[in-house]
Amino acid sequence: MKTLEPSAGQISKYEFLLERAKAAPSPLTIVIYPCDETSLRGAVEAAEAGLIEPVLVGPAGKIRAVAQKYQLNISAFEIVNAEESTEAAAKGVQLVAEGKGEILMKGSLHTDELMHSVTSATSGLRTKRRISHVFIMDVPGHEEPLIITDAAINIFPDLEAKRDIIQNAIDLCTEFMPSPPRVAILSAVETVTTKIPSTIDAAALCKMAERGQITGGLVDGPLAFDNAVDPEAARIKGIKSEVAGRAQVLVVPDLEAGNMLAKNLTFLLKADAAGIVLGARVPIILTSRADSLRARMASCAAAALYADARRRRTHLPEA
């Protein structure tokens, strides 16, 4: 198996995720349509690392052929046959709905196909919470991981959707951060103005946090990107808060802004971007063929930690 070595001169910020996930029981993970080398190898290597226990859903013959071609050992994994990608998505979602899986993992099918099955009114995986995506970014030169949300699911989220997006991110961070996460609601400026609607949303969300409608994190905004992540920029602007200059979670105003921010960090600063989807009954791992091995492993680790926390909460004795 490949090693999880960071780039030259870079220390991986994912190690804390990986070590904690390896110490927890490996969650049963439904891998949907792993019919190319990247998706099948990702499941195999995550299993070898002790992060997940895969169940492969897709055309059994094709999966075995890919495994043989690329010398991947899948002999220990259960295979649930489904010839088409849409059938595989439906069967995988059904397995989770029946309690036979704790995580969903995307294979080589389109994200839309998987999410269509997940969000179907009859799937049993929807909750009252809005589904959203979280990037866990390992940015060279930045002391801590940066969590960016939502850059993949919600295109133009309204105020209620943003509340759920923030709460989803806080709930995830709570599983691996020792203190309440510092959440910055981003806009182009750090002052509230009717000319920029996202600043008004940010102010409302901060009030919602004060009133207990968002819990578990320290929320501030609007903040511009510079004074959200750089203490000196926050000092120069005269912004005094527990979040400004030290944000760990960056809540973007819309998908376009989040997507561009994440890709700028990835391609210009060579950041790694692990990512999972939250808000459904189980976490969903959405990997890309462009992801590094470390990013794919970190995605599995984050989902495994989240699944373990849900498992422990479910089995807590009643007071």
Write the layout of secondary structure elements.
Layout: H1 15-23, E1 28-32, H2 37-48, E2 53-58, H3 60-69, E3 78-81, H4 85-97, E4 103-106, H5 111-119, E5 132-138, E6 146-149, H6 159-174, E7 182-186, H7 197-210, E8 218-223, H8 225-229, H9 231-236, E9 249-251, H10 255-268, E10 272-278, E11 284-285, H11 293-314
Parallel strand pairs: 1-2, 1-4, 2-3, 4-11, 6-9, 7-8, 7-9
Antiparallel strand pairs: 5-6, 5-10, 10-11
How would you portray this structure in words?
The chain is α/β, with parallel strands linked by helices and 319 residues long. Helix content is 41%, strand content 17%. Strands 3-2-1-4-11-10-5-6-9-7-8 form an 11-stranded mixed beta sheet, sandwiched between helices. It is globular.
Quickly list its features.
319 residues; Isopropylmalate Dehydrogenase; Rossmann fold; globular; 11 strands; alpha/beta; 11-stranded mixed beta sheet
How many separate structural domains? 2
Low-confidence stretches: 1-10
Distance between the termini: 45 Å
CATH topology of the largest domain: Rossmann fold
Question: What percent strand?
Answer: 15-25%
Strand and helix order: HEHEHEHEHEEHEHEHHEHEEH
Concise synopsis of the structure shown:
With 319 residues, the chain is of the alpha/beta class. It has helices at residues 15-23, 37-48, 60-69, 85-97, 111-119, 159-174, 197-210, 225-229, 231-236, 255-268, 293-314; strands at 28-32, 53-58, 78-81, 103-106, 132-138, 146-149, 182-186, 218-223, 249-251, 272-278, 284-285.
